[in-house]
UniProtKB/TrEMBL annotation:
InterPro entries listed in its UniProt record: CS_dom, HSP20-like_chaperone, NudC_fam, p23_NUDCD2
Protein name in UniProt: NudC domain containing 2
Domain CS, residue spans: 14-104
GO molecular function, one term: unfolded protein binding
UniProt-listed PANTHER family: NUCLEAR MOVEMENT PROTEIN NUDC (PTHR12356), NUDC DOMAIN-CONTAINING PROTEIN 2 (PTHR12356:SF18)
Length: 157
C-alpha cells in the first residue's frame, strides 16, 4: 500500500553530503551517490538492527547507530546503474508517530521544515491505510499531525 501511496504523493527527502534518505510508515530508504563505474565488489555494507555502516572503494560513507531499531534480516542494499546505492531498512515500529528525525543518532538530521513535512506525510499515509476507499495522496494537512495525528479509534463508525 505505501508504495502506491508514495508513487502518487512523492517523497520528502532529507539531503545529506552523500545523497539523501526518506521514510514511510514501514521503511527508511537511503540513496547514496557513488562514483560512476562502482562495482558491487567495491561496496562493503553492514546492516544491523540498530547499526549501519557503508564503505565504497575503501572510503567510509557513513557509520553509526540508527535513530531507531530495524529488522536487520529484512534490510537490503542494491547498486543501481553503477552509480547509486539504495538501502532499504524495515522499521520495527511502524506507527505514523514513529517519524525519524535523523538517520543516525545525532547525524543526518532533518531540518525543522523537512521534519514537519515528513510527519505530515506519515500522518496522511496512516489516514490512507485507515480509509482505503479515499485518496489522500494529494491532501494537505494542518493542525494536530505531530505524533501521527489525531486518534479516531474511539469514534463509532
Amino acid at each position: 500500500m505505501s508504495v502506491h501511496f508514495e508513487e502518487k504523493s512523492g517523497v520528502v527527502p532529507c539531503k545529506t553530503p552523500w545523497g539523501s534518505w526518506y521514510q514511510t510508515m514501514e521503511e527508511v530508504f537511503i540513496e547514496v551517490n557513488v562514483p560512476h563505474g562502482t562495482s558491487a565488489k567495491e561496496v562493503k555494507c553492514r546492516l544491523g538492527s540498530r547499526d549501519i555502516e557503508l564503505h565504497v572503494r575503501g572510503n567510509e560513507m557513513f557509520k553509526g547507530r540508527l535513530f531507531d531499531t530495524t529488522m536487520s534480516d529484512e534490510a537490503t542494499w542494491t547498486l543501481e546503474d553503477k552509480c547509486l546505492i539504495r538501502i532499504i531498512l524495515m522499521k520495527t515500529n511502524r506507527e505514523a508517530g514513529n517519524c525519524w528525525s535523523s538517520l543516525l543518532e545525532g547525524e543526518y538530521c532533518a531540518n525543522a521544515w523537512v521534519q514537519d513535512q515528513m510527519q505530515r506525510k506519515l500522518t496522511l499515509e496512516r489516514f490512507q491505510r485507515e480509509n482505503p476507499g479515499f485518496d489522500f495522496s494529494g491532501a494537505e494537512i494542518s493542525g494536530n499531525f505531530a505524533g501521527g495525528g489525531p486518534d479516531f479509534s474511539s469514534l463509532q463508525k
